[in-house]
């Protein structure tokens, strides 16, 4: 076991990140070959953007890499060193993410119905709540900080949050590299915020996920060689939601309850808008269509690459606002830099839409 020092604690996070990234980058081509031989490919249709069949089980590599990074840290004794009192919560998020991965993989392989997916997702999220991954309270400013206990509302609110984020990430996975990039950026921001707020357990999970997502982006950015599928999207969505629950939202700060929503604003707002617009038109919220932000940008004549980069800049901008709100040193400077980047990418999107 490594020495229990502050600098070594940071090494645990680096180990999780690097192991996850390298395992994903090594295993993705292997998964791609398996997918091609077994015929597990995503075929083009009216809703799909790609024109050639592409392997859709890349989530296996993300799952393998992230869990490998976390298991290495566990083997080194890092779970207990980083945060002994949250050891059970780390396992709760990890096991819950594993279950969600297999739900998504089953959907990739067998095309489950929306109702059956939602039912199983709710059951697994309830299990995670039972294991300690739960939203127990929220903080409001009123003189001194006041924590309001959720009581019996803890279960439904936690399930809605976990299941909602899983599906929000899955829904933005409609463009080469989009979900992997957005989740990678969000995970890095959560890693930084969790470390700043002295939540090393949550930071460890974020580090592993960040490595996995960014490693997969090497093969998933346009033109994509492989898709993560529902397995990868479910796994990453649950990990992000779990990190928010056991780490950031548990911090005794006024802004803590808002930070996860700010960091994950892009997938949350995209899903909310799509559901609302479908319901207002009397359609099922589960009915696939082309109402998502990336679809609208493509319809405006924006290229896949610029669309992905623009949404990355939106995610980075939201993350920089979270850094500033959290009180992170020079957070305002980072927010200003991200704002300038967003202005530039917005101008590029506007210019290209005018040309087309």
From TrEMBL:
CDD domains, per the entry: GT_WecA_like
PROSITE patterns, sorted: MRAY_2
Any one annotated GO CC term: plasma membrane
Membrane topology: Multi-pass membrane protein
Native species: Cyanobacterium aponinum 0216
Keyword terms, alphabetized: Cell membrane, Magnesium, Membrane, Metal-binding, Transferase, Transmembrane, Transmembrane helix
Keyword Transport applies: no
Annotated InterPro entries: Glycosyl_transferase_4, PNAcMuramoyl-5peptid_Trfase_CS
Transmembrane intervals: 12-34, 54-76, 88-106, 118-138, 150-171, 178-197, 203-221, 233-252, 258-276, 306-325, 331-350
Cofactor(s) for this UniProt protein: Mg(2+)
One annotated GO molecular function: metal ion binding
Protein name: Undecaprenyl/decaprenyl-phosphate alpha-N-acetylglucosaminyl 1-phosphate transferase
Domain of life, source organism: Bacteria
Annotated localization: Cell membrane
Annotated positions binding Mg(2+): 170, 230
GO biological process, one term: cell wall organization
